[in-house]
Structures are given as C-alpha cells and as structure tokens.
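## retry 2 of 3
previous attempt timed out at serialization; input unchanged, resubmitting
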Amino acid sequence: MGRVSRLELVASSVLTQIYEVSTPDEARLISRVGVDHIGILVGNGEFPRELLVDSAAAVAAAVLSPSRVSALFLTADLAMIEKYARELRPAIVHLGAAPELLSPGDAASLKSKLPDTLLMRSVPVVDEESIAIARSYEAIADFLLLDSHRPSDRQIGALGVTHDWTISRRIVELVRIPVIRPGGLDPTMLPRRSARFDLPV
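## retry succeeded, writing output
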C-alpha cells in the first residue's frame, strides 16, 4: 500500500455538520449533497427557533441516508429530552445546555436510557476549566462539540462570537473521542482556522 498523505488522513476524519435545519426541503437538499449530520433544534418553544416535535419529525423524515439526524436540545430537562428522543429516534442526541445545568452524570443517565442513540455534548470553550469539562465526558459522549459560552447563558453556542482556539486545539489533542469545531466558514476564515489546528487548507 502506498503512503497516505496528511491531507488524505485529515479528509478521512472530517465530519460535516449543518444546524439548524428547519424544513423538510432543506433537510432533503442538504443531505443530498452528502452532509454527515443534519442538525435540528428541538424543544417546546422555550428557546428561540426551536421546532416542536411534530415539525422536527417532518424534517427528520426528509433526511436521506447516509446523512444522520442530530437532534439538538438546549434544555436541561432530561425527561423532555428522553421523551422527544424516543418520538424522533434521531441517530444523535446533542446536549447543548450549560455545564452547570446538565452534568456528566445526567448525560450518562440519559445515554443509559437511549442505548441505541449516539450522544453529542457541547463543551463551552472559555478557559482552562473547559479542558476538564471536555475530559469528563470521554467515557460518556460519542462526540464533543466545542463552542463559545457566556456565564449568563443557559445554552452553549450560537453566539456569533469566536472563542479561544488554542484551548480548542488542546482539547482536540487530549480527548480520545471525535471533536467537532463549529462555526460558519468563508474563504477568508478557513486558512486562519486551519492554521490554528495545523491542518492543510
């Protein structure tokens, strides 16, 4: 077998993920082009832009294989998450509540009740404590998603601001599960972000 280039190694380990898909037509089109994870924000209306479970189910039904549905919950209400997850049956349940509202123990309990569902956990990238938070989910989550966070917010991410990418890189290097780095990219941003993680552009 010939040598595999660094670019090929990186490409083989990259997942694409698009959130917040809100209509069946969007889901169908995005999955048709090969996006790995189709993210749907699900809830009871407590947070802006949440889809109620019936609407979320219609979006999920439009996702084409092999794309996978990721149901994002910003709530810390475990009973609600479990109930909606059982109704939607997504491939991935993504927990986006702030760490002080939803603990590793809570996540482990939920996963035990949904054994056939992958678990993604948002991790706030704020300071050195973020590394410890990320590592606390290594034996629980199947994916981590690193995002910005303000102490006053009940959810992680969707702030439209950047975080400390040096901390993100350390988390990527230290944890043993896949890490997703969020954020919209345009041609001017991609070289800067790739350089911070020593990735080819």
